[in-house]
Amino acid sequence: MPGELTKTPRTTLKRLPERGRHDFETIAAILDEGLVCHIGFAVDGQPYVVPTSYGRDGETIYIHGSSASRMLRSLKQDIPMCLTVTLIDGLVVARSVFHNSVNYRSVVVLGTATEVEGAEKEHGLFVVTEHMVRGHWDVARQPTAQELKATSVLKLPINEASAKVRTGGPKEDPADLPSALWAGVLPLVTVPQTPIANGDVPGGTRVPSYITRHRLTPDGARK
Ligand SMILES: Cc1cc2nc3c(=O)[nH]c(=O)nc-3n(C[C@H](O)[C@H](O)[C@H](O)COP(=O)(O)OP(=O)(O)OC[C@H]3O[C@@H](n4cnc5c(N)ncnc54)[C@H](O)[C@@H]3O)c2cc1C
């Protein structure tokens, strides 16, 4: 693990910088907990921000998708990109609308993606697949040559990145404190529900542990 990432002018937080983090451990933990990233890039002066899946292996983020997708075709052209992941931990409700907020953990990664081929392409697919459903890669059918051809895999190094974390209750103006209104935090979590088997799954088929224990860490803790 690289420890503290070098803070660049582009990754220096300006507003509320005390909420900023540049240690790799915090950045990696947020990336590992998220399921969706948003990728920002510009084509012909038009910015796009596109949600997509991803996975992390060490200091590398892998993304994948149809070789025909504009996002992947554009990112292969060595253009600058920005990848963000946001985890929402709670709604922060104040006595004034001005001080309403959100508890969150977020990451911004800046850089340029590179297409990977061969063994690293398959590894990238493994990383993205396992990020979604850990344990599925080993039991599911592996990609065919045609499926591999139709898929592009890109990697983005995590070397220019920042995290930002907000915790706690609302900041209130002292003048608002005598108000009779409730104020506080409504915690929010993403919780798996009862799995729904596909109609073509034979009755009595056991739900695999990689579904029932979805996104639990190897020692049983929720990610
Ligand atoms: C769920 C959520 C809700 C938010 N709501 C608001 C809102 O309503 N209004 C508002 O102004 N801000 C909001 N923010 C904060 C917002 O993301 C920016 O942090 C904020 O706009 C201040 O940016 P800045 O001018 O300091 O930095 P900028 O100049 O915009 O950014 C400089 C650098 O700081 C880092 N950085 C900035 N923000 C983040 C971040 N959130 N996570 C990781 N790195 C970051 C990046 O490396 C970026 O390149 C919200 C954030 C989240 C996650």
> Level of helix content?
10-25%
Helix and strand string, N-terminal first?
EHEEEEHEEEHHEEEH
What is the radius of gyration?
20 Å
Average of the residue pLDDT scores: 95
Bound molecules: flavin-adenine dinucleotide
Extended strand count: 11
Judged by helices, strands and strand pairing, the structural class is alpha+beta
Shape: globular
Low-confidence stretches: none
The helix count comes to: 5
Largest sheet: 7 strands, antiparallel
The portion of residues forming beta strands comes to: 25-35%
Instruction: Quote the distance from N terminus to C terminus.
Output: 19 Å
Description:
- The protein is α+β, with helices and mostly antiparallel strands and 223 residues long.
- It has helices at residues 24-33, 70-75, 118-132, 145-149, 209-212; strands at 20-21, 37-43, 46-52, 55-57, 60-66, 81-93, 101-111, 114-115, 151-157, 161-166, 184-187.
- The strands form two sheets. Strands 1, 2, 3, 6, 7, 10 and 11 form a seven-stranded antiparallel beta sheet that branches.
- It is globular, with a radius of gyration of 20 Å.
- The two termini are 19 Å apart.
- Flavin-adenine dinucleotide binds next to strand 6, strand 7 and strand 10.
- The site of flavin-adenine dinucleotide has 15 residues, from strand 6, strand 7 and strand 10.
